[in-house]
Amino acid sequence: MDPRCQLTRCAACCDEEGGLEAIRAGGGSGKRERETGYTALHYACHFGLVDLVTALLNSDGKVDLNGQTKDLILSGAVVQSGGQTPLHLATRAGEADVVRLLLTHNADSTLVDYDGFTAMELAQLGRKERVFALLQHLKPEAPEAPDGLEALEALEALKQKDRLAKEASKLRAAKQLEVPDHLRQSYTLPKIWTLEECNFVLNALKDAVSKRESGWTTDRHAAYATTDVPCSEVAEIDAWVRESLSKRVFSKLSARHGWPYSENEGHFAHSQGLYFRDLFFVKYSVDGQAGLSLHRDGSIVSFNILLNKATDFEGGGTYVEADDRAYQIEQGDCFVHSGKLRHGGQPITKGERFILVAFVDLDVWLVENLSEKLTAWNGACSERNTSTASQTDYTDFGSVKPDIVVHQAATWSD
What we know:
Layout: H1 3-12, H2 16-27, H3 40-47, H4 50-57, E1 72-74, E2 77-80, H5 86-92, H6 96-104, H7 119-125, H8 129-136, H9 148-175, E3 187-189, H10 195-211, E4 228-230, H11 238-248, H12 250-257, H13 268-271, E5 274-285, E6 292-295, E7 301-306, E8 313-315, E9 318-320, E10 325-327, E11 334-338, E12 343-345, E13 348-362, H14 364-382, H15 386-389, H16 402-412
Antiparallel strand pairs: 1-2, 3-11, 4-5, 5-13, 6-12, 7-11, 7-13, 8-13, 9-10, 9-12
Helix pairs in contact: 1-2, 1-3, 2-4, 3-4, 3-5, 4-6, 5-6, 5-7, 6-8, 7-8, 14-16
């Protein structure tokens, strides 16, 4: 496993020694989780892993000391507000030693989370006295801590702010289920894969399943289980499938919806904001699971590709509630819809139906990061003439060359 992924996973599992070993193996600062925004430092601060926090802050990797998380939403409710910095999380947990380390490395104590709370306010609200004292010491102009009635009034004001924040979080959670206008219409991308490619993928899938002790799985998606196999477990074709879809489907999604994408060979994986949240094969059969009830995927976009011939089964298709229609496609076609639209698998009445399903999200952090790099690069070019600008050192811009970023900016600047 990539030591960066291993580092973040160890931190998330409270495995301090494993995290330290991952750093020694070249894990740097770890890898940020796309769905949560958490980094290894966030987890280490949350769990009070002092040695790991120290190692991360002193490592050669570029640690995002003030990186902020996303809303954590479960069953349609925000269970933890987004915008949490490592300092926020250490404060919530009352980890005074970790807070002291972060402040020593100049963590920004003025940042607020999505609810509008600074770390100091969270310390006061949560009665984290040692942490509160450390944070208050940063503000020499602040009056001494109030006592008596003033202290009660100050705490009550924070509690009222917290109550209002919880109401606001309900609106944010509800907004997550809203379908943008440009995604309300479902559509089909024809012939994404040739018949030969479909047969190649399907044969590899069946061969892999026959060799798996557990065969097809039925417990990966707890609420709406499917008879499936993750694409990552079909090693023979996994890399080809991902690259093929990235080039053939992501490019079309990006062009239609104004998302970033570059076709430059060798750069597409780094320069696009779309990524697979999940990618798996599904089997529908009369003798097994024939269909799937109405549900939402939670992804920005979902799509499926039919792997076998449409004449191999009867019924089937993707039913979209808003359209009151079951969409059926031909072998190799790709059906695209918003993951937030309620939809289901129309039951088949004969034969077997095999599809590849993808849940796709947009990496907002990457898009924003590319925007910052583009702004910096344009500023640098404005100080040079055209011939000099064309020779600009790309080192500070990571793996994405500015000319790629410029091409992308035109599609998502609005």
